Amino acid sequence: MTAEDDEGILLALQYRDRVRRIRLWRPVPILQELITALEEEFPMLEYLYIRPLTKPDTSLTLPKTLQAPHLNYLILHNFAFPIGSQLLTTATALVTLSLYSTQSDIPP
């Protein structure tokens, strides 16, 4: 994929009311940029899969403001899942939750 492809993904994510599936498998620096576009509500989102190409030294985190009331599948690899995230409280149709090598933001 090219930088133009990544710009196209960012553009597509601006149409929140149309996006049903998001599957991102990109290098960490690019994922960090794409994840920032996942703020606020995606009213039609049913499937969210995010995985870095390589295991990062620092954790990726979803925005706390991300909401997806129709989310059925949430699969995250190597993420810090924010406690108090609106995502799980608004995803009333969640069927599959897979968190691989994730960390919560609970202090040790």
Word description of this protein:
The protein is built from 3 helices and 7 strands, in the order αβαββββαββ. It is an alpha/beta fold. The protein has one domain. The strands form 2 sheets. A 4-stranded parallel beta sheet has the order 1-2-4-6, covered by helices on one side. Strands 3-5-7 form a 3-stranded parallel beta sheet. The protein starts with a helix and ends with a strand.
Short description:
With 108 residues, the chain is α/β, with parallel strands linked by helices.
Distance between the termini: 39 Å
Query: What is the gyration radius calculated from CA atoms?
Result: 13 Å
What is the tally of beta strands?
A: 7
Q: In terms of per-residue confidence, which ranges show pLDDT below 50 for 5 or more consecutive residues?
A: 104-108
Gross morphology is globular
Sheet with most strands: strand arrangement? 1-2-4-6
What structural class results from the helix and strand content? alpha/beta
Summed over residues and divided by their number, the pLDDT gives a mean of: 82
How many domains comprise the coordinates? 1
